[in-house]
Structure formats: C-alpha cells, structure tokens
Design brief:
about 45% helix, Rossmann fold, 7-stranded parallel sheet, alpha/beta
Length: about 240
C-alpha cells in the first residue's frame, strides 16, 4: 500500500460526514496522521471504528468550524502538538433547494453561506499561517458542480458554492510562490447515506462513490499534484 503521506499531518474538516469519512480513512491508509472536526459524537466513533489499526493516528475535535475563535484555537493546539500542518480539506457543507428564489426564506441564504462559504474562509484563515511558516502545504475545498451549473430552485446553494470557488481561486493567487497550493473540487451528487435518504428513487449506481472522490482529494494534496494550483476540478 502506498504511504504518500507518511509522517504528514492532515486536517479534514467535516471528517466524519459522508465524504469526509472516506477522505479521512484514505489519508489514514496512506500513512497520515489525521485530525478531523465533527459535530456528532456517534459519527466520530464510527470513523474510529472504520480506522481500525490506524485509529492511533486519528484525532477528533468537536467544534463549529464557522466559529473563527474556536477554529483558530483548535488549529493552534494541533500545530503545537504535532509541529506541522501539511494539508487541509474542507468537507463541511450543506444543501438546501426546492424553492424559487422569491419563495425561499432569507434564512436559507444565510445558512448556505455559513456552511458552504464561511467555513472555508474561517478554516483557511487559521490554516494558511501555519503552512506559511513551514513553506509548504495543500488546501482542497469541496465545492459543487452547482457552482458552475446553476439549476433552478437552488439559488442560495448555487450562490454559496460559486462564492466558495471564487474565494479559493483568490486565495490561490495570494499564495502564489509560497509553496502552498489551494484548489477546489466540484462534485455532482455523491453516493452517501444522506443523499440516498434524500433521493430514494434515484439510480444510486450512477452516483460517484465517496471513496473515488476522496482519491481525487488525496491526489491534489500530494506531491504528484505539485503543478496544480488555483483549479476547480469537476469530479
């Protein structure tokens, strides 16, 4: 088995969700020490169980990643403990759709901006300074195909994901020449338990699997992708 990330520390925000779980497990399999953020204790316990023999390299923090002070404190403590932060993946997000723009409540936009935009902004604010000190690092933000393919009845969701892509693109420009890379991925519907429950009549066989999407994220965080910076990659 490849150990591309042996000796490295990776932060996976939302690391116990449908996609985040798969990302965390794949990083563990490839030798990384993995720190995850989570909101539900039972999801973290499920991840610990799935980690098996790699569980000793798994660390969890139950925090709200839209809280700037909490994220700053968490990342500072992680870096103080491990002495490094090599990669950060933000798999935190939410989905709300089904209303025409003028029918949706304003709180829907606030919620989507908080989960899909503000989370990445807060995480990057604290992760980047740690990476700058070591002169290397990789950031991958999970956006959505909806950032570029703006379907009806999903204005708030599409706007939040489009803004997230623009934010990471601008961050990449800020980081040019620093040794730190920042990219986005644009998944379509991922085959997760939550999505199956939300769309029980869909053809699940056609949906990309979480593990396959995770492999794209690992590639972007690896030295194999050292020339990819400021990209938004459909998966």
């Amino acid at each position: 088995m490849s150990e591309r990330f042996s000796g490295q520390l990776v932060l996976v925000a939302g690391g116990t969700g449908g996609l985040g779980h798969a990302v965390s497990v794949e990083f563990l399999k490839e030798g990384a020490a993995v720190v995850v953020t989570y909101r539900r204790q039972e999801e973290f316990e499920a991840l610990r169980h799935a980690a098996g023999a790699f569980a000793s390299r798994l660390e969890g923090h139950s925090i709200d990643v839209t809280n700037d002070a909490a994220v700053h404190q968490m990342i500072a403590s992680v870096v103080a403990k491990h002495g490094r932060l090599d990669a950060m993946t933000n798999a935190v997000g939410g989905y709300a759709a089904g209303w025409k723009l003028w029918e949706a409540e304003p709180r829907v936009l606030d919620q989507m901006l908080s989960l899909n935009l503000h989370s990445g902004y807060v995480l990057s604010r604290s992760a980047v300074p740690a990476m700058l000190k070591q002169g290397r690092g990789a950031i991958v933000n999970v956006a959505s195909r909806a950032a570029i393919d703006h379907a009806a009845s999903a204005a708030a969701y599409a706007a939040s994901k489009a803004a997230a892509v623009a934010m990471i693109d601008s961050l990449a420009a800020d980081l040019k020449g620093t040794g730190i890379r920042a990219n986005s991925i644009l998944p379509s519907i991922i085959d997760t338990e939550a999505n199956r429950k939300a769309m029980p009549d869909a053809d699940f066989a056609k949906w990309p699997k979480a593990r396959d999407v995770a492999q794209v994220i690992l590639f972007l965080c690896s030295d194999d992708a050292k020339l990819i910076h400021g990209a938004a990659i459909p998966v």
